[in-house]
Amino acid sequence: MIGVTGVLNRIQELQGQLGLTPVNPAPGATGTVGTATTTGAGGNVSFASALATATGQGGGMRLNNQASGQDVVDAAKKYLGTPYVFGSTDPDKGLDCSALVQRAYSDLGIKLPRLSHQQAKAGEPVANLAQAKPGDILAFDSPVDHVAIYLGDNKMIAAPKPGDHVKIQSVYEKPTHIRRVVSDFSAVAGGQNVAAVRPASLQGTGSLAGVPYADMFVKAGNRYGVSPKLLAAVAKVESGYDPQAVSKAGAQGLMQLMPSTARGLGVKNSFDPEQAINGGAKLLARNLREFKSLPLALAAYNAGGGAVHRYGGIPPFSETQAYVPKVQKALAALGG
């Protein structure tokens, strides 16, 4: 039978062919943590989920390291007051305990299994409550029949029981399992631009309040490892947040993708905001990895990577020379 390392090696081979971000290495193996997905007949499939299925481990690995625990807490707090409804995953109708946990992580682009006993195996174990951090999953009883999200200071957010609602409460008994699914993100870009290209999970997303499509920027940013604030700044300069914008050169949509570029990014409809934002995030992530500089990554977004290489820096095009500082100014206005 093929082992975990063998499965990961095969997945990494497929990822290289498809241009996807590597998934977690097996214990003792080398590799980069990520949340790569591919599309099959059934829609988007997480490589992490595929690996868990292939190895029968049901989620015993870190699923994502590009969001922070505080992001998880903030996502969960959006559901405070939601009624407890057993079996429901629709917050408009109600949520049960594991649905709340799954929903909070899902809002950050992180896939978790549905049931509490499965969530008690997700991510990595934490030894005890003293070592727990905000965003960790607390599981209770044996077999596990309840889960919550730790807030710190012996507090948690949970959907407790029928007749109750999502609320903050004290950790009333010792958890039987504590699991950490997210951890700090380490940017690969160097120099003075590192802070600007890190996901907003380490910068806070409060300044995106009131920005159109803010949730989509956050989700795409965490998925591709790009600051949501940077995505929002690019969209503001490119289209003024107009999903139907078309430039004189033929660039389309919120992120102003040329049709050929959009096709290469897997974007079928540049006028669809979510597809456009994901395409823009994928392109910016690629540029940041290649050029390891925010100004050069932005210049490549505007003029193409070939032009940046050809001129050895920001090309001497008036549009590009003006574009880079515009986006940096918009990013600064968002607190990036």
UniProtKB/TrEMBL annotation:
Annotated NlpC/P60 domain residues: 66-189
Signal peptide: none
Keywords: Hydrolase, Protease, Thiol protease
The keyword Glycoprotein is annotated on this UniProt entry: no
Family, similarity comment: Belongs to the peptidase C40 family.
The name this protein goes by in its record: Transglycosylase SLT domain-containing protein
